[in-house]
Amino acid sequence: MDVTIKEVGTKSDLRKFVHFPNELYKDSPYYVPQIESMDRDTLTPSKNHAFEVCEGRYWLAYDEHGKVVGRVAGIINHNYNEKTGEKTCRFGWIDFIDDHDVSMALMNEVEAYAYEKGMQKICGPMGFLEFDPAGVLVDGFDQLPTAYGKYNASYYEEHLLALGYTKDVDFVEYLIKVPEVIPERYARAAKLVATKFDLHEAPIRNRKDIHPYLDGIFHCLNAAYSQLHGFSELSSGQCEDLGKQFLGNINVDYLSIILDSNNQVVAFGVALPSLSKAMQKAKGHMFPFGWMHLLKALKKNDTIDLLLIAIDEQYHNKGVNAMIFDKFAQGIMKNGIKYIESTRELEDNTQVQNLWRYLEHTLHKRARVYHKLL
Fold first, then answer.
1. Structural domains in the chain, sorted by start
2. Mean pLDDT across the chain, nearest whole number?
3. Cα–chain-centroid distance for residue 194?
4. How far apart are CA 248 and CA 154, in angstroms?
5. To the nearest whole percent, how much of the chain has pLDDT over 90?
6. pLDDT, tens digit, for every residue of 245-264?
7. Residue-wise pLDDT tens digits, 33-70
8. How many whole angstroms separate alpha carbon 8 and alpha carbon 73?
């Protein structure tokens, strides 16, 4: 195929860039369209504090008829590179039709950009931050993604392998079936841990009660995630962005904030009602009716998505997870939740995975991040 690559340089180009996967997968029952206006904000420097420490360029691939057939972003997170001593360029927001000329042309642009910037390795798919979608789906093509994952066709891996990319890490997702009665062992373990280490739940009755703990939550997050793949410390502006993104949707029944004897945050966990089906109905747009589908899903749902669990290092492997899950369990029983989806977590994250050992659970999706030395 004759492929033309054009760098995104206008608002019109950015709209095409964001819209492309929603068009590519419009007939797939498993694709969850992202809200296009939110994606555009993420990719716009003036609207995303990640650009305080990152830079990026985006490209579109066109066929001989002028139709968009692929997209990709090249990203450099200077903060992460400085922390690790690496010279890594990330690629992300990658989608393409099943044509090797297209995928090659797109990745050639990313690699040329990386060379230009003095990078020594390409890694991805990854975003600016740990909380952007990462990985190529390699297992679970017949499963509905969470709203925070990303669907792709099965041919993506073949294309990347043909271009010389190899596995870096895998992310996995579990589907957990909620029993009619949560095993008592969780409540017993939670009480034992709380007593032994003098810990307690923050008294959260509504969203306003969360604000006094936000600084502690983000401090805990930065400390707990510091050694994770691809993570760089969040700035105050980035914390502000995350707060705006999630606070408006939080149901306090699925929020656990663990405090020590000095009322300092030492751990937290947060889940949200699943938005996947609502986002399919919204078809990538909040208006005119997309917001109604999302609001309904937040209020009435039988599935929750586990977003984050962070535990201060001094409390690792001490059972604090049990306190977090015990709080979730109360909300799960109260609201008639039948399923829990774990969003993408590193395959060796046994600390979180051990939460499900006494419940019926299935590893049903796997996504892969690749790398290539330049």
1. 4-171 (3.40.630.30), 176-366 (3.40.630.30)
2. 93
3. 30
4. 35
5. 77
6. 777 788 999 999 999 999 99
7. 999 999 999 999 999 999 999 999 999 999 999 999 99
8. 10
